[in-house]
Amino acid sequence: MDLNKRKEIEGMPLEKLKTFFIKYSIEKYRAEQVFNWIHNHLVFDFDEMKNIPKDLRIKLNEIFNLISLKKELGQDSLQTKTRKFLFTTSDDKKIESVIIPDKERNTLCLSTQVGCPLDCKFCATGLMGYKRNLSAAEIVDQYLLTAKHYGKEFITNIVYMGMGEPLLNFENTIESLRVFTCELNKVLSRNRITVSTSGIPQRIIDLADSKIKVKLALSLHSTYDEIRNTIMPINKKYPLGENIKAIKYYAQQTKTRITFEYTMLQGINDRKEDIKGLVRLCSLVPSKINIIPFNSIAHMSPDGISAKLIPTDKKRIYEFAQELRDKNLTVMIRDTQGDDIAAACGQLAIRN
Q1: Please, which pLDDT band fits residue 318 given cuts at 50, 70 and 90?
Q2: Which residue is catalytic, options 109, 116, 182, 345?
Q3: CA distances (Å), 63 to each of 24, 57, 60, 320, in order?
């Protein structure tokens, strides 16, 4: 078989893998063995799968490609233990992933696209433009290669919050989620996986109907359409009202609480009326608010609105959060980690 036409095996959910094995006259139970080697033992060479017969290992090497990304040198933050990984795709595109350590968890921030088409004004990724979607295997590879680097039980949480909009790469995002949440995958737990979206209503509904039941975060940043239209152009196509209906449906179907991500921008979304808007919104759907300090995107030489954005000062962030808590809302303030290596929230980008 032409090497360029081999299937990417690590991005296949187990049931799909079984179907492929049957197609190639391979016993179905062998799919579980191979899946187990890849995802639970982090073995990326068919020849090292010792309970697989030699003739089958030869056949697998002919049919499947195993690991589609190449891991480049990482960068470590001098301020925190945050680590940024650079990966190269088979067609020489560059993407980044980030490990965010904490006392009780180690979170991997995954990318789903090379660049991003949404052009959110506070995000560096949008400034690099959009190149293409990542395959399911390329999404899964970020986890596998990072887990191999640290050890299979190091990563406790996964967030789809890196480069790109996951729900605009819906099929590959779903495929990767099915890999991560498969019962045979013993390392990861679905209640420790979060998909973040800027708001694609029909795809939020589709994700709910998929029955995968991971956590959902809405990249909110304002409860007012006129502000979202300015800092998040996608809102012009999918207004907040449509997204509220979709996330209410998601919460009802999955019995999970929605996270509202809220990057604070001075004079734009840190006002008294913004507190009222958040209180009103949170009364409509089970939710919590994740407040994010605005991290500089100067490394991408922004212009226009992006160049004029100013972070809300720390004192106001804490006042804002407390006022929300006084209204009985659940509010978390995310600590900035990795901004010294452009690995903090909103900073991932590759300069062309």
Answers
A1: very high
A2: 345
A3: 9, 10, 5, 56
